[in-house]
Amino acid sequence: MTETVQRVRDGGVLVLRLDRPVANALVPEMRAALVAALDEAAQDAACRAVVIAGAGTGFSSGLDLSEDMTAPRAPTPGDLCHAMASCPKPVVAALHGEVAGAGLSLALAADARVAHEGTRLSLPEIALAGMPCAGATQRLPRLVGAQAALEMILSGRPVRADETRLRPLFDRVEADTAQVEPAARALALRLAEADPDPTRRDPQRGLSDPRGYQRAVATVRARLGEGEGAAADILRAVEAAQLLPLAQGLDFEEVIATERAQSREARALRHLRLAEGRARALPEMRAAPPRAVARVGLAGAIPAVLTERLEAAGVALVGEDPAERADLWIESEPGAAPAGPMRVTFDTGAGFGDDGLWLRFSPDAALAEIGVGPGAAAEAVAALAWLLARARLGVVRARLPAAGPGAGRLLSGALDFAALALLRAGLGPDEVDHGAVALGLAEGPCLAMDREGLDAAQARLAALAPRLDMPPPEPEGPLAARIARGARGRAVGRGFYEYPPEGPRPGRADGGAGVPQGVGAAEALHAALVNTAERMLADGVLGRPGDVDLLATAAPGMARDRGGPLFAADDRGLLAVLRDMKALAPLSEALWAPQPGIAARVREGQGYFRRSGAAAISRA
Questions:
Q1: pLDDT tens digits, 337-347
Q2: Is residue 518 very low, low, confident or very high in pLDDT (cuts 50, 70, 90)?
Q3: Taking the mean position of all CA atoms in its chain, how far away is CA 98?
Q4: For every residue of 110-154, which 3-state class applies, written as one string?
């Protein structure tokens, strides 16, 4: 196994240098190596002090996102920080580059810190509905006070080491990166020669103004209100730093940080962040070097998110003049782009086509669906993927011609067909839409079709039906019946809902045999999405279950804190979803007759993300 910690003896100082691609993430092996090195330093009479530094461009990016933080492997980040804080030899952290998450927790557990002035410190856990661990919520406010600590933790944004509010964190701030480690070694020796200072292990300077500390906590509490969630948990932990001795505060932090990591919201957001990273690794990026792209031509109706991100990335954009030269053209209408080394056609609704390289965005989403046809060269696909990554846009790869009009559009279509089936069975539009909102959608499918216009919705679903193995909307069905009565959507004031000035009012239910007992609208819509996703995976439309969840948060608009339909299926238990499908299948075989892969997953005890698919246990 490659060593993750370099050990260098410099006189009486042992320098432990974190050295692991990428960004010195504190994986379990590195944590174990550091604990062992600290224990050896404690036993070594020739070692007078320890310096912990980072090799490469930064100190540490924190924990590896792929590690399961609901049950981290030993030694945990807290174990590591305890080993550092209890080391009988002085420990100094030498910081440069990125110092994030558990990497900052590690630095806070040292006796002292020396940093380059451009060091970027952050506690980004709140972005994933988590909270800092390993003592960060206890040691940071004890050093800089509640206001600065809460600003940093609740924003999650990086802060430079030379900012005034962080001055109490450091014994020295160096202008030259090369001087950081030598300054840390010199400081470590001075600490070894001086009398022990207990406030270095149990800092108090941030607690010197008790009333100011309490005002800062009260101000944030008033802003947050009585809500729950990551911000509320962080506030409780920072408040505890003033009220409890350090040892008890650390125990308190560990309890609520563990509960926070186990919350559905935190697990869902971590899942999507991992899925984003995996989706960016297109197979073509490994198969061929990308073509160089310096100038991008844009023709037609290009979404603002693409233009803005490309401009922010410094990409040169050219207009629609055929005489303009560009390395890559993106056009909104097939056939209109000038010739170039690589041609990409942007899809605004007509579909991807059967070959070549196509691009599609969901409205207002920073996620691009790349349709890759049999005629697309690997270096062209790689070039487009690198370009989108440079523009900080997420990507999902869809295979053509199987993806047809786009995988995201297929998911949205399945949701709409399921809604129509439930209306046919006797549910009202409001019942269907309430089920969709309970599933995590911002807007129900009936309201969405009203906004689109029922004629347009019927035409769209008729075009999608063959791709979903569905019959087109029937002439006597919920859509056609309303259109025949002149209810054509929100624009005319009547659709599935009526639209008086006081707000939408649902129309009457159509009547029907009803949905199976014990299966609500939310469960029925979810089962249709899962079944459609399984079909797309089996047909090779998408390569990974995580791709489905990414698209579901963009196209149908499922809330990210739900993690997507397949994450939710694993979380609930795939067996329970399978039971719903079997009960619903008489309403529509095409929508709910279980795909073979789902039954196979349940038989094998597998979910979509290596969880048990047979355990119908819901975790809150």
A1: 332 234 665 44
A2: confident
A3: 20
A4: CCEEEEECCCEEECHHHHHCCCCCCCHHHHHHHHHCHHHHHHHHH
Band of residue 286 on the pLDDT scale cut at 50, 70, 90: confident
Local structure of 384: helix, strand or coil? helix
Task: Please give the structure tokens belonging to residue 237.
Answer: 């932990």
How far lies 345's CA from each of 7, 141, 335, 451, in Å?
54, 52, 8, 27
**Two structure tokens written together for 344:** 């990409």
Least confident range of 309-323, 377-391, 442-456: 309-323
Cα–Cα distance between 378 and 375 in angstroms, integer?
A: 9
DSSP codes of every residue in 525-557: HHHHHHHHHHHHHHTTSBS-HHHHHHHHTTTT-
Q: Report angle CA 158, 164, 165 to the nearest 5 degrees.
A: 65
pLDDT band of 256, cuts 50, 70, 90? very high
Task: Let me know: does 382 contact 265? Beta carbons within 8 Å.
Answer: no
**How far apart are the C-alpha atoms of 174 and 413, rounded to whole Å?**
58
Q: Which has the minimum average pLDDT: 85-99, 174-188, 216-230?
A: 216-230
C-alpha to C-alpha distance for 92 and 90, rounded to whole angstroms: 7
Per-residue pLDDT tens over the stretch 61-103: 999 988 877 778 899 999 999 999 999 999 999 999 999 999 9
348 to 143, 362, 547: CA distances (angstroms):
54, 9, 21
Distances (CA, A) of 611 to 542, 595, 600, 616: 20, 19, 14, 11
Tell whether pTM > 0.85. yes
Domains of the chain, first to last: 5-262 (3.90.226.10), 280-397 (3.40.50.720), 405-620 (1.10.1040.50)
Tokens matching residue 193:
């020669």
The pLDDT score that the predictor gives to residue 610 is 66
Q: Which residues lie below 8 Å from residue 453, measured CB to CB, with a gap of 6+?
A: 488, 489, 490, 491
ω before 22 within 30° of 0 (cis)?
yes
Contact 505, 490 (CB under 8 A): no
- What distance in Å separates the CA atoms of residue 512 and residue 147, rounded to the nearest whole number? 59
Tokens of 600: 């196979």
